[in-house]
Amino acid sequence: MKEKADKLPIIIPLVVYHGGEHKWNLRTSLGEWITGYDQLPPEVHKYIPNFEYFLHDLTQYKEEDQKMNAMLKIIQLMFRDVFTKDHEAMLGSILRALYYLNDLEDQQTAITFFETWMRYLLYAANTLTETDIHDIIDHVEKTFPEGSDIVMTLAERLEQKGKEEGIKEGKREGATNALVKTSVRLIEKYIAPVPNDIVQQLKQQHISTLEKIIENVYEHKTLEEIKQYLK
């Protein structure tokens, strides 16, 4: 609102739901969320806001609706199927979306829009495999060649991100294994032989915990004292 406005604008609450396989089953009016609202007398009702929100449930979206333009069909198609576990259904949705892109009059807008929803799809759809992504690239080249460079670039970025995360994870595992070996060696040197169950517990610890054990092992005399570090 503007600071000195003397009227309120119309605000219509809208919920767009694309929850995969689950239908929306929550209450749709504010009064339904208020305990005992229905039992309140009318004199009290007038002091309590009660309104409904408009629900647009994409799990019920029918692609055959001819009233929608191509862009809206693509948006609803992607939102509806992005979390599906059915690979064939996902790939089918992508192919139909590519078909709709060709219906857009402004192809520059189509290319920009294509990049946006492909970025969303590649990062949000956890079920897509490397083979699926290559299939998508192949279909894009045939159906919407203007977008082939975009999807290949996005796929390369995704692949690079996966490699980087794998390298980081490998470094973490390497550091953890080294600290576990050092912990076991020091415990056995200064306290007692380390049974296998404690070794397995050490492998599950955070790096910071292992560092504390190594730093303080000289202050302890029994394995029970070491176990106090283990979570």
How would you characterize this protein structure?
There is one protein chain. This protein is mainly alpha-helical. It folds into three domains: 9-59, no CATH class; 68-143; 176-227. Helices cover 58% and strands 3% of the residues. It is built from ten helices and two strands. It has helices at 30-33, 42-45, 70-81, 87-101, 107-124, 130-143, 148-190, 196-203, 207-216, 223-227; strands at residues 14-17, 54-57. α4 (87-101) packs parallel to α6 (130-143), α5 packs parallel to α7 and α7 runs parallel beside α9 (207-216). The protein is flat and about 75 Å long. The two termini are 52 Å apart. The model has no long low-confidence stretch (mean pLDDT 76). It holds the Pfam family Transposase_31. This is Transposase (putative) YhgA-like domain-containing protein.
Residue-averaged pLDDT: 76
Shape: flat
Placed side by side, the strands forming the largest sheet appear as 1-2
Q: Which H/E pattern describes the elements?
A: EHHEHHHHHHHH
The portion of residues assigned to helices is 55-70%
Give me the secondary-structure category. Answer: mainly alpha
